[in-house]
Amino acid sequence: VKLAHQGSKEETLPLSKLVSPKASEVEKPKTKMTITSKKDYPLTRNFPYSLEHLQASYCKLARIDMRMLCLRNLRKLDLSHNSIKQLPASIGDLVCLQELNLQDNQLESFNVALCNSTLKKSLQALDLSQNKIKALPAQFCCLQKLVHLKLDDNNLIRLPFKIGQLSHLRFLSVARNKLPFLPSEFAKLSLESLDLFGNPFEQPKPLVPDIHLKIPLTLLEYSARATINYRISYDCRILPYHLCDDLEMSKTCQCGRACLTCFIQTTVTMNLHSVAHTVVLVDNMGGTEASILCYFCSLTCYSQFLDRHLQKML
Fold it and tell me: Which keywords, in A-to-Z order, does the entry hold (predicted)?
């Protein structure tokens, strides 16, 4: 610039010729990183912001590295075989995340905030196997894009109440847990593969119901049933927050109508082939049946169910 300013001729300027670099010489943005030991884990440098697939396994991580949560292009995050105990709500800020693998960690719960995050629009595969989870939150079923769900080898005593809302779910594995029965909406699933091996399913007791009916029904029960049955819109601007939660947790009678806190509950046998094309045997005896909860909104509905049940037995 100085020489040009002084009026030097172009021929005398000491400039090298500019040559376009070859494609092989240009470093492409890094999209995948695999770390499988603690000694290889980056402590002093950041992860490349262009990453789409990050695996950090066998690194003895006690919590999720906040630097990972800045990777906005991340589509697959594999943190299996660590010692993670909690999930931060900021995982929900990974707007492109499609696969999350948390197999073999120390998780005891699943963060409710993640169920209402952007993950409900992006997450397709979730592996929570080999953890210490006893129950998943009811809001878990907001993750309606899930196709693959693995929950093997936990301490689950129940599945999410509204699991039937997972309409895209095709592969479900909940082997070796502590499930005594399945939720009523399990029957709404349409699966390719189902594995419930090693759960202590109770023997169904259709003739021994658990009765929670109040006669006459309370005004709250009447109005709640009407709100759901007639599909009357509501939100937290109209109703108190806890009432909205109660309505979201309403049960569905065999007749198709809703009930809130007044109902009859019992367990019946369900053939798992009715919801899945491929079924792993439930036990070593070759069984493909499990107990499932049933709800009835009135004595009339329960009586009609008993009549049908007794006819089948005869």
Answer: Leucine-rich repeat, Repeat
Amino acid letter for position 122: S
Query: What's the half-sphere exposure (Cβ side, CA atoms, 13 Å) at 190?
Result: 2
Neighbours of 66 (CB within 10 A): 9
Crossing angle (nearest 10°) for helices 241-248 and 219-229? 60
**Sequence-separated (6 or more) residues with CB below 8 Å from residue 24:** none
DSSP string, 214-269: -SSPPHHHHHHHHHHHTT----TTTS-HHHHHHHHT-EE-TTS-EESS--EEEEEE
- Integer Cα distance of 223 and 130 in angstroms: 43
Q: Minimal CA–CA distance to 163: which of 252, 232, 89, 224?
A: 252
122: closest CA among 137, 100, 107, 139?
A: 100
Q: What is the DSSP letter of 117?
A: S
Which residue shows structure tokens 């953890």?
131
Place of tokens 């009586």: 303
Q: To which residue do tokens 């301490």 refer?
A: 155
Interstrand relation of 210-211 and 264-271 (parallel, antiparallel or unpaired): antiparallel
Query: DSSP letter string over 160-202?
Result: -TTGGG-TT--EEE--SS--SSB-GGGGG--EEEEE-TT--PP
Q: What is the pLDDT along the chain (314 residues), one digit of tens a residue?
A: 777 777 777 666 666 666 666 655 556 789 999 999 999 999 888 899 999 999 999 999 999 999 999 999 999 999 999 999 999 999 999 999 999 999 999 999 999 999 999 999 999 999 999 999 999 998 999 999 999 999 999 999 999 989 999 999 999 999 999 999 999 999 999 999 999 999 999 999 888 899 999 889 999 999 999 999 999 999 989 999 899 989 988 999 989 999 999 999 999 999 999 999 999 999 887 889 999 999 999 999 999 999 988 887 76
